[in-house]
């Protein structure tokens, strides 16, 4: 089994910063010696333990309900791959790519997702706990009604991510670009947005209670906040 040390800026205790926001616990996955995957298509409810998946094509395959434990997936193609209700545990996914990957209602725990290139990935209703998403670009990420706890987005680009109705607890955005984010009906607790490289919220800006932002970000978001509150901002010289 992979050994994991909860580290990151918050340490094992996820200590609060000077602002009172609790830092996320980052995964540190140390994989054991892995066996190369023997090939063949993914199987529904398959059990994959201690395997290395290298540059494999899983396009259109059905691995719904599968369990990946202590695995490494590197450079794999996941276009239209069904991984509905899959469990990905103590694993590292590097350079995966795909459009329309279905991970709805899945569980990702102690996972590192590095340099992914994904579009329209479905993670609605999923549970992400101690997950690091570093580098890469994800377009139209669907996290509606998902539960994110101890999740770090670092150095990645998220285009129109949908957090509608999701719960975010101890989530950090570090050098991360958010374009057109949707926070409609989301619940945020100890969410740190101060280090985001770009913060653009298209909907649900009023749901930022429970998050911490920088003064510059506040100024940038002021028009959206005013519109959300129904406040009209006009010049002082109006007749």
User: What is the ordering of alpha helices and beta strands?
Assistant: EEEEEEEEEEEEEEEEEEH
Mean pLDDT: 91
Distance between the termini: 72 Å
Low-confidence stretches: 1-13
Radius of gyration: 19 Å
Principal-axis shape equals: elongated
Counted beta strands: 18
Q: Kindly estimate the percentage of residues that lie in beta strands according to DSSP.
A: 35-45%
What is the helical fraction, as a range of percent?
A: under 10%
Treating each run of at least 4 consecutive H or I residues as one helix, how many helices?
Answer: 1
The profile of the biggest β sheet is: 16 strands, parallel
Helical/strand content category: mainly beta
Protein architecture, described:
With 239 residues, this protein is mainly β. It is built from 1 helix and 18 strands. The strands form 2 sheets. It has a 16-stranded parallel beta sheet that branches. A two-stranded antiparallel ribbon has the order 1-2. The longest helix is centred in the C-terminal third of the chain and has 15 residues, at 215-229. Mean pLDDT is 91; it is low at 1-13.
